[in-house]
Amino acid sequence: MRRQPITVGPAHQMRQRRRQTTADNAKGMAQDAENQANSAKLAAEELYNVSVLVDQRFGHGTWAGILSERKKRIDEMKEIEKERIRAKKQQQEELIEMVSLGFIVLTILGASFGAIYILWLLL
What is the number of other CB atoms lying within 10 angstroms of the CB of residue 63? Predict the structure, then answer.
């Protein structure tokens, strides 16, 4: 015999709220995605309108020139950032090399002084 679920009480009410909240979240996420898609379409349309207005006001190809100049500047900034990262990495490698060389020198000096001390004790 199968037991019927309890349909009254705080536990049932909490389950119902949880189910409703999950359904509301799913609806909200779908609406959010739809709103983002609509916003992207409106932004693209507005950008096209601006490009037409700029080309009409300043001559054909002005908007394309603006976009190419923007792309060029962005590429330059990316290249500068890559160069800065490369220089920083090279400095870090040089520092590691100097520290390891210093450690080797200190080890050799320590071994030398240890050998001299042992020889001095034996004499």
Answer: 19
Alpha helices by DSSP H, listed for 1-123, are 10-58, 62-122
Nearest Cα neighbor of 89 from 77, 97, 99, 78 is: 97
pTM here is 0.54
The pLDDT tens digits along the chain (123 residues) read 556 555 666 666 666 666 666 655 666 677 777 888 888 899 999 999 999 999 999 999 999 999 999 999 999 999 999 999 999 999 999 999 999 999 999 999 999 999 999 999 888
Output the DSSP codes for 19-45: HHHHHHHHHHHHHHHHHHHHHHHHHHH
98: number of Cβ within 10 Å: 10
Task: Count other C-beta atoms under 10 Å from residue 92's C-beta.
Answer: 10
Give the whole-angstrom CA distance, residue 50 versus residue 57. Answer: 10
Tell me how far apart the alpha carbons of residues 74 and 69 are, in angstroms, rounded to a whole number: 9
Instruction: Return the number of other C-beta atoms located less than 10 Å from residue 2's C-beta.
Output: 4
